[in-house]
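Sequence and structure are no longer studied apart. To make this concrete, we show below a single chain and its fold as tokens.
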Amino acid sequence: MIRYIFSIIAAFFITLSSWAQGGLPSRYNVSYLNMAAGMPNNFADDIFQDSYGFVWISTHGGGLVRYDGFNFMNFGLGAVGISLRSNSCRNVCEDPFKRLWIAFEEGPQVLDLKTMQPVVPPCENSQVEAQLNKVFKNLCTRIYCDAKGNIWMLSFNQLTRFGFNEKGEVSSVLSTSYPYNAPDLGICDVYRRGTVVLCNNGVVSEFSVKNNQLVAKNISSLFPPLEGRYGGGRLFIIMVRYGWVRIADCLIVQSRNSIALLPTIRSSTK
């Protein structure tokens, strides 16, 4: 299965490279971000750029790292300055209120990007606060911000969605059981409507909120060639063209012999 993943990714990048080379300069300045350059660890699980332009690198063993284009700042456990809860960071995302949500294997944590201090997001009422505190004690494998600004969190047996009011307070914490047998799962707001698509155990599901509950819709029938055997992952393709950065955020739906891409596109200038 891994062989097919690498094959499709290689083919995809070759296609993109052929498309892009016609408009890009023939020479590139390439630099490597590794331990020799100042990284605390060479095992990077995820890369994310926040709204201020900083790049956050999630490492396994080296904690969370911020890169400003010149220097690294380490936020790992025991780091000088700001020390976060773990050195095993899976990924990060940013909510609409300048807060960085961090998926550590030991549990989630939130960093205020304006003050650069760890915070517990304020809640609309005591009931929501109790729900938030309970969920924050769970292990965390993936965290994601959808197109509407809601935060989704995957733990080993549960999917949770955090909603916010206009003040940035957590207004709802909705959870549903979601056991899975993969080391990691892709999660993506494919349709850009505040829902997420997940692939697991032979089922492709879209999760949404109905009657204040998380509800799963089976959309596996959209992929008949995959013969009921699905795995999920996320692929980020970054193409730089005359100062424009175009990021294609795709959910990979894969079986033994077939792969489908569910793309969402967003663009920004840098």
Remarks:
- Residues 61 and 193 are 35 Å apart (CA to CA).
